[in-house]
Design brief:
24% strand, 9-stranded mixed sheet, alpha/beta, Spore Coat Polysaccharide Biosynthesis Protein SpsA, Chain A
């Protein structure tokens, strides 16, 4: 029996980096051939390896080259430019499970080595709605070669950055991408930024070309699986319901003594030509937040609610505010540790509903430190949201921006998921299925980053939990959109 089952493709960043990786692969006795992916046509091939010259290791051309050259039963693609250390019998285990499950691709939990220190790097299950282009598979992808070639044969576009993304979407249409929740290898990790710094990479203007390609690949995928929505929206008559107030700002809060006063002041200082109020849902604070809110009780615009329930997340607090009889026609978000940019934010947000005939409006915010000085990545404007394709592209990205505002009658109908993470994203997807989402591209909101923020720095288990939930939201939404299209 021929044991040499795997064609391996490894990015070449330097001889030292790649030699250890190659030795580890060859030592398994399972490797048929090794290809080094390099941008340097002059590079001399290392012993036992062949070179493939590519401009970008994740381009469509690179993926086509992988598919054409792969001759083993399985194809291993290593995506990092640092050293790979395989666990004991790791490739045998991956092949064994790939055989058993007939998956198109398998990927595994692993260890990361940063500055010589080993940490766990578990990954999450791939779902129907796992459309994020930054979905973390780890750096070792093992494909069924036959299925890989079939998927590559259906790739239509020539992408510089989105080739691998396009390939895996095509593959996922006909095969499972299977997560092996066992720690099978170690990779060297050089990106030591906190999780809160990495999560904004996709809105960095420097990555715009890459984002446009990813959007194109995702849109094509949605069309192929029946989940694409044409830019046709329900019209809204803003006369439903009899609202005493035009707008309500909703602040759910729990133990934010350091910031709640600033948030409240920024609302009460708004200048408008319409009636508005502020509904603060104080979720059983114990640190003096309750007393801080009560300092403003002489202002009749402030409604301070302490729920009887003890089971409310941020979404549940929102539901209390939105279903309050004094909630206005538009419900506008403000987090308890953020502030509005100036006294015109509320007017700007409300105006957008009428001008763009939308059921939800998303603004633009600036990242600041605790003292409201701008910090990287600066202004987050989500310019990738276009009226034509925003609601399709929303299934690919991990957030929609802030502040968010909603037409209250629709929000009362849809309701907010009772979670403390991702509830706003779930609403954005749900609203956009039928309604246009309006955009404000001026900075109207200051998002303060500080140690107690909910996502300033998360451990990998928390991050995975968040991503798993957001993928689940996408899965549900995608299923609903496909069903909607079938009815048409």
């Amino acid at each position: 029996m021929d044991m040499k089952k795997i064609s391996c493709f490894v990015p070449y960043a330097g001889k030292e980096q790649v030699e250890k990786t190659i030795q580890g692969l060859q030592a398994t006795g399972l490797v048929k051939d090794i290809y080094l992916m390099t941008t340097n046509a002059e590079l001399e091939a290392l012993e036992g390896c062949q070179n493939i010259v590519v401009e970008n290791p994740f381009s469509s051309k690179a993926m086509q080259a992988v598919a054409q050259n792969a001759s083993g039963e399985y194809t291993l693609l290593y995506t990092k430019e640092t050293t790979l250390e395989l666990g004991m019998f790791a490739l045998e285990r991956m092949i064994h499970l790939a055989d058993d499950s007939a998956a198109g691709m398998v990927y595994a939990d692993h260890y990361q080595i940063t500055d010589g220190k080993q940490t766990n790097a578990p990954v999450i299950d791939y779902q129907f709605g796992s459309l994020r282009d930054d979905f973390n598979f780890g750096s070792v992808l093992l494909f069924n070669t036959e299925m890989l070639k079939e998927a590559a044969g259906r790739m239509k576009a020539e992408y510089t950055f989105a080739g691998l993304y396009d390939l895996r979407l095509k593959l996922s249409q006909k095969a499972d991408l299977m997560h092996i929740n066992e720690y099978l290898y170690s990779e060297i990790e050089n990106d030591t930024r906190k999780s809160g710094e990495k999560i904004f990479d996709y809105v960095d203007p420097r990555n715009r070309n890459r984002q446009i390609e990813m959007e194109q690949a995702c849109t094509e995928h949605l069309k192929e699986i029946g989940g694409y929505l044409e830019p046709k929206f329900k019209e809204i008559e803003f006369s439903a319901g009899n609202f005493e107030y035009e707008a309500s700002v909703i602040i759910p809060v729990r133990n934010r003594i350091r910031t709640i006063r600033d948030a409240i002041k920024s609302v009460l200082s708004q200048k408008t030509d319409f009636k508005f109020n502020l509904i603060v849902i104080n979720n059983h604070s114990t640190d003096g937040t309750t007393e801080a809110i009560d300092e403003f009780k002489d202002d009749e615009r402030l409604i301070h609610i302490i729920p009887e329930r003890k089971d409310l997340g941020i979404g549940g607090c929102w539901n209390m505010g939105v279903h309050h009889p004094k909630c206005g026609k538009f419900a506008v978000q403000l987090d308890s540790d953020d502030v509005y940019k100036d006294e015109n934010t509320l007017t700007t947000m409300v105006k957008a509903f009428y001008e763009q005939n939308c059921a939800m409006v998303v603004g633009t915010y600036m990242m600041t430190d605790f003292n409201m000085n701008m910090i990287a990545p600066g202004i987050i404007d989500h310019k990738e949201w276009t009226p034509d394709n925003g609601r399709n592209n929303a299934l690919r990205i991990n957030g929609l921006g802030a502040p968010r505002a909603f037409y209250t009658p629709v929000l009362r109908e849809v309701k907010v998921p009772n979670t403390s993470y991702g509830e706003d994203y779930a609403l954005g997807l749900n609203f956009s299925r039928q309604y246009q989402i309006g955009r404000v591209y001026d900075v109207v909101y200051l998002c303060r980053r500080w140690d107690d923020n909910s996502d300033a720095s998360l451990d990998i288990v928390k991050m995975n939990g968040h991503n798993l939930y957001k993928d689940r939201i996408r899965t549900w939404e995608l299923q609903a959109r496909i069903a909607l299209n079938k009815k048409k």
